[in-house]
């Protein structure tokens, strides 16, 4: 199968190109930034550029985007140009070239203010039924991209799957207060309880979405690691998270004590992946329990793919 991957020089784009090529697909990568995984260097805001690389393509993985950290380096118009116009160009050319499946990488950041409960409320239980309330230009433009996908399925019958991924980037946390109080690996391990996913599992979700798109037509899915929490745990999570974790994951404290780590005192939201598991047949391999098992024997806790790709930072173009 001939597959186009946008953002092929980035974390997820490179991961997809690596895995797709290992499965003998013909892969075309495009990105603003040159790399060993990119065939065409240019902008998805240029429809002629997109058209050049779309010929004969049967599936599109659209991972290219301006991210939340770009808010400090790019203006709102650039977010609109890349995240909305760029997505529109890809959708238009997908229709023109009879693409069979279009997989759009979105983000749980689109939920925005819906993720922050009132101080008197329990932690937020986030499923696809929660109404997004974007709180910045990144969230607004990613949500617009999702809606464009839905529109193109409705009116042009393009099979589109939206994957709302939780955190998988290896870069440091964007909040100084968190970085000051926790080590980087400690932060990421904690997040696997409720808001992080391994890039290997993200890739697998994308491949399944490509295969199932024709049958599903259109839908949105949260892509995050399995959580040990249930809705009954939400009140305590927002007040005494370590106690809940201790009850549900016996033995975590001994591993953390060995590492000199600590659990967050408060967990304010839980991303729920049940719909993706049911509809896509997705089974994420990495969760908090597996991370603990790796740490207990002093092994690298994340996937080999995570280690292979490493940290790239965020492009400044």
Sequence-ordered SSE layout with sheet pairings:
Blueprint: E1 2-6, H1 11-22, E2 26-31, E3 40-41, H2 47-54, E4 59-62, H3 76-96, E5 101-107, E6 124-126, H4 137-156, E7 160-165, H5 176-181, H6 184-191, H7 199-216, E8 218-223, H8 234-248, H9 252-259, E9 269-271, H10 274-280, H11 288-296, H12 304-309
Parallel strand pairs: 1-2, 1-4, 2-3, 4-5, 5-7, 6-9, 7-8
Helix pairs in contact: 1-7, 2-3, 3-4
Outline the structure in words.
- The protein has one domain (2-175, 194-226, 270-286, 304-309): NAD(P)-binding Rossmann-like Domain (Rossmann fold), CATH 3.40.50.720.
- The protein contains twelve helices and nine strands.
- The chain has helices at 11-22, 47-54, 76-96, 137-156, 176-181, 184-191, 199-216, 234-248, 252-259, 274-280, 288-296, 304-309; strands at residues 2-6, 26-31, 40-41, 59-62, 101-107, 124-126, 160-165, 218-223, 269-271.
- 45% of the residues are buried.
């Amino acid at each position: 199968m001939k597959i186009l991957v946008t953002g092929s020089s980035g974390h997820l784009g490179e991961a997809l190109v690596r895995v797709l090529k290992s499965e003998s697909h013909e892969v075309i990568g495009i990105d603003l930034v040159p790399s060993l995984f990119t065939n065409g260097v240019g902008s998805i805001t240029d429809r002629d550029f997109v058209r050049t690389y779309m010929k004969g393509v049967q599936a599109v993985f659209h991972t290219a985007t301006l991210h939340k950290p770009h808010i400090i380096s790019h203006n709102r118009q650039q977010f609109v140009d890349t995240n909305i116009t760029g997505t529109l160009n890809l959708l238009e050319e997908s229709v023109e070239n009879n693409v069979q499946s279009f997989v759009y990488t979105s983000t749980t950041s689109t939920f925005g203010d819906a993720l922050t409960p009132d101080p008197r409320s329990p932690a937020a239980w986030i499923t696809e039924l929660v109404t997004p309330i974007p709180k910045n230009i990144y969230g607004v433009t990613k949500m617009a991209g999702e809606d464009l996908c839905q529109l193109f399925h409705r009116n042009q019958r393009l099979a589109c799957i939206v994957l709302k991924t939780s955190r998988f980037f290896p870069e440091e946390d964007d909040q100084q207060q968190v970085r000051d109080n926790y080590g980087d690996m400690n932060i990421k391990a904690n997040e696997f309880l409720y808001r992080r996913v391994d890039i290997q599992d993200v890739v697998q979700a994308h491949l399944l979405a490509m295969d199932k798109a024709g049958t599903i037509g259109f839908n949105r899915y949260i892509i995050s690691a399995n959580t040990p929490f249930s809705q009954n745990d939400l009140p305590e999570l927002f007040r005494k998270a370590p106690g809940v974790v201790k009850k549900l994951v016996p033995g975590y404290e001994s591993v953390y004590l060995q590492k000199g780590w600590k659990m967050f005192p408060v967990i304010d939201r839980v991303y729920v992946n049940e719909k993706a598991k049911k509809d896509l047949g997705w089974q994420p391999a990495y969760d908090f329990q597996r991370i603990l098992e790796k740490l207990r024997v002093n092994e690298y806790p994340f996937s080999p793919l995570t280690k292979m790709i490493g940290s790239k930072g965020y492009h400044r173009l």
